[in-house]
Amino acid sequence: MRTRIRGRSRGLSVAMAGALTLAIPSAGLAQSPAPADIPTGGTIIWMLPAVISSAMPYNYPEANNQRVGTLVNIGLTAVDTEGNIVPKLAEKVPTVADGDVSEDLLSVTWRLRDGLLWSDGTPLTSDDLRFTWEVCGVVANGCRQSAGLTDIASVDTPDDRTIVLHYAKPYFDYATQFQWGILPRGSADVGDPADNARWAYNTTVNPNLGPFSIQEFVPNDHLTLTRNPNYYLAAEGKPYLDGVVIPLRPDLETIRRALLTGENDLIANISGGQAEIDEVANAGIQIIGGMSAYQNQMLINQWDPADPTRTTPHPVLGDASVRKAVVLASNPREWMGLKDSSYYTWQEMPYRFTIWGAQYTCDIEPPPFDPEQAKALLDDAGWVVGSDGVREKDGVRASIRVGAIAGWNETDAVVWASQLKAVGIDATLDAIDNLLVYAGYAAGSPLYTGNFDLMLSDYGRDQGSAQADVVLMYGSDQVPSPSNAIGINFTGVQDDQVDQWVQATATETDFDARAGLYCDIEKRVDQELWTERWTGFGPGYAGATAKLRNVHKNELFTVFGYGSDEWYLEP
Amino acid sequence: MQRVILLRLIQIGPMLFAVSIVLFFALQLVPGGPTAAWAHGATTSEAIEAIRIKLGLDDPVPIQYIRWLTAALQGDLGYSYTTNLPVVGEVLRHLLPTVLLMGTALTIIVILGVVLGTFQAIRQYSKADTFVTALAFAGASMPTYWVAMMLLIINAAILNPWTGRPFLPSGGMTNPRGGGDPLDIAVHMVLPVTALVLGWVSWYSRYMRSAMLDVIHADYVRTARAKGLPERVIVFKHALRNAAMPLVTLLALDLPYLFAGALFTELIFGWPGLGYYYYMAITQRDYPVVMGMTMVVAVLVIVASLIADLAYAWLDPRVRYGSGRR
Lengths: 571, 326
Known about the structure:
By secondary structure, chain A is of the alpha+beta class. Chain A has 14 helices and 20 strands. Chain A has helices spanning 10-23, 63-72, 126-136, 201-204, 252-261, 274-282, 320-328, 371-380, 410-421, 434-437, 446-449, 466-474, 496-507, 511-527; strands at 43-45, 77-79, 85-87, 107-111, 152-159, 162-167, 212-218, 222-227, 243-247, 266-267, 286-300, 384-385, 391-393, 396-397, 399-405, 426-432, 454-460, 532-544, 548-549, 568-569. The longest helix of chain A has 17 residues, at 511-527. Chain B is an all-alpha fold. Chain B is built from 14 helices and no strands. The longest helix of chain B has 36 residues, at 87-122. The radius of gyration of chain B is 24 Å and the shape is flat. At the A-B interface, helix 5 and helix 10 of A face helix 2, helix 3, helix 7 and helix 13 of B.
């Protein structure tokens, strides 16, 4: 689940980009020189803090693998740093208006650009797209990223450049189908689709289509990427760099230090707080601030944590007044990850559905931070302050756990807990193993089994879709259980009105109408049922050596590494 | 002696069997399991189940164990869940950097420990002894990971005036911009080896000082002095050999580190050794690697303790195993 988010108001995004440019004149957002003036050549070092085990575009185990994959893979379209869907290997983005997409959204025709080649010089054909579907369109094959592909019932390839996808049900995000990449049927490194997890291709990605090709891959040590001579924009001189060496270092601080000492040229996320970021800036290194990929989310469990069926109300949070009080008593701006800095100005997130940016952004006012109103609500609901400052009602103490992801947002959760204590709710930190948080029902994940009170979650962009989000997060039939391990209705929303709207979205092919339904659902869940609160995207800070230009960071829309074909080194 | 060695070798089998059972079943208790790392919650239940079947995790745990044991007895420790490479190959690939790092560090530690401990013993209560003792306590009080971080910070602060960069690389085993020759590797070893030496040498020097003090006040040393032997001969020929006994124990206990790696040091300096690999495997729930690595370390611990016992016998002729008499 902790995959990334994309989408938000384009207007806000542009405003933020402007603010960033003002704040950081030397950052990568500065205007680029004309292509003719861009120096080419050079190799950069980009240290990453992870086990990179697969750069296969449909088997990224986590974000850093995907960052590497972004350098070696490219798909039919991409979402750019402004949130626009732009064609890459496709001639254009198919639309209903052009006739490439049927009115019922069940048929989508894609056409490849002319003359596309794999890195080994063999032609890219529509049969490779078919092969990609054959591999990842089968659920049992276990591809990690297969949204939409599994909804395709059949494909036609009338010629080498054209493929027609026939969906079994509308896939609203068809415009980004195959955005992560294409698999080569003719590669010696691929094999049985059912065994794709063990393909040699996962680490060789040979041949590939992205700007760089993997020359060497030493697990747990490093990758060496070199320019792909057959990149589709090679005629424009892209990529501008000759190569990227990616040493793998497990410790973020080590990577930050290496940036300071000149051993490293690029870091996707600077570790530490303001002092560490200032230290990097003072060393003459560009700070590239932008929205991180993660949207913070307060989850409020209305059901008894001991009851995984979500039928017994929570002794404290089962009371809607308490849930509303929790929201009103919470001030996300005080949380460390959301504070302003000199490199980034945090803004309250307008209510969303984020996935495709402006189309799905809801005009809903965030709830105010009003501890006095929270206290009054609790008083009115009969929660009386005891001698130790903790409220009680009918012998039940208002004592709850604030769940957080260990090593990720515990500090934020501690601040949140202190805010709740101020209104008489005894809240204590419950740090949860980061792998366990989203590990699924069978693995005993607290979110899936409902064994939590409050949870400071971070919801990331899935390779799924807004529609999938809505259905899986709010449908009453999507409460995780042994028989439904894919549902992510963690707070156990079981509301007839919400269900009606969710069902309506499944057949609503009009984007505006569907966006309206999404917002209705969001408003109901967040400000009437009070079972969650979206708080906004935390900032993220990349760092790049002063000579490395054109590096952008907006992981709300794109994976860091997007646009690497335009990175260049100043002499 | 041969009988003792044979007996100890025979004991290795049951001990490893017991270790493997405890470890294998203990791993099953870890929340999440391997599919947690695989799925990150984003994959459908069908896909997760498909992965479980592919990995053989749908079988009962005893069956999984028997399958693992059967393969392990044939030298096959399975495939890493994260890299899909054979565990044996991965362990061997990470072994060399660890042996290089830890071998160098241990060699320096032993030499420095012996020299400092001996020097302190023969200059007992001198200012130099007091000074070195203070340093030793300071060294022993500093956790290696803290020393490592301090070294990184100090290294970053002291810049080469010609390049504007630190004199030493902050991590890795080779220069990613092109390196890998012995000098490059040696330069990359300076900081991690220093961190290890500063943390460990105090223990060795203290043991050595204590042992040497015992020995140089022993009757046979007094006799040697009375015979007019030069002090150098007394110390290095007669006293040192006997005083080295506790050091052998210490070294034998530390030998597994030679192979298992100093986890924090390798992590902080990005040294691609076994400690680093082990940490990654644990955090990724990569059970085949965790099992394989632990078994390799278990073998080494047992072998190291056997070597220590044999070394005792070699160093001290009074020690005779298995005879029932001294």
